[in-house]
């Protein structure tokens, strides 16, 4: 290849590569879902022989668009190298009554104390509360607490494979009574941790 053709190729690459990198970082990408913590929304085949492939929207989080009910990909608060797939249940300013495992117990290793089982947790500004769709599988905010919105990498838009499961992911809201929207709950502050509050009244 002549030097002039090489230069022309390099110049074309300079025009193409940066937009492509921006698209991959802030546009749409594809990923696979591993594990069973989000059943039945993802990987409903319990045999594990098939796993869902999904379209990931990186643009919405980059623009600060977060909605309760969305399924998102985020970095684990305890291990930044690990990616989690969870559903947003509450946003900053909201209050939530944590979900517990079988019976009345608290998940092992949970940041929530047994004495706080019936308390609401206030989500700090700039944070969210995420949960698995399958209550008894996987780690979520019931164990590690509210997470910074900055840990969210993408919103899961739809399942694209297998083809017989091609569909847009529905936005599922929490059950009535679990989440109290910002401004509808008065708290008595706990000096030990201002993220854990005792509800006084709600409307």
From TrEMBL:
It is found in: Mitochondrion inner membrane. It holds the Pfam family Peptidase_S26. The keyword DNA damage does not apply. This is Mitochondrial inner membrane protease subunit. CDD domains: S26_SPase_I. SUPFAM superfamilies: LexA/Signal peptidase. Its main location: mitochondrion. Its EC number is 3.4.21.-. It comes from Spizellomyces punctatus (strain DAOM BR117).
């Amino acid at each position: 290849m002549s030097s002039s053709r090489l230069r022309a190729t390099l110049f074309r690459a300079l025009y193409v590569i940066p937009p492509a990198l921006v698209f991959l970082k802030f546009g749409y990408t594809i990923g696979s879902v591993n594990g069973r913590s989000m059943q039945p929304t993802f990987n409903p085949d319990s045999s594990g022989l098939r796993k869902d492939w999904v379209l990931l929207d990186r643009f919405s989080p980059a623009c600060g668009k977060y909605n309760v009910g969305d399924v998102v990909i985020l970095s684990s608060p305890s291990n930044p190298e690990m990616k989690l797939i969870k559903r947003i249940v509450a946003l900053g300013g909201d209050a939530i009554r944590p979900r517990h495992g079988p019976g009345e117990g608290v998940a092992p290793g949970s940041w929530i104390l047994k004495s706080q089982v019936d308390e609401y947790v206030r989500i700090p500004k700039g944070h969210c509360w995420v949960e698995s769709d399958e209550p008894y599988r996987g780690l979520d905010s019931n164990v590690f607490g509210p997470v910074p919105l900055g840990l969210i990498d993408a919103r899961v838009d739809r399942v694209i494979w297998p083809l017989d499961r091609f569909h847009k992911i529905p936005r599922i809201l929490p059950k009535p009574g679990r989440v109290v929207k910002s401004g509808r709950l008065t708290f008595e502050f706990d000096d030990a941790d201002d993220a854990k509050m005792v509800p006084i009244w709600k409307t």
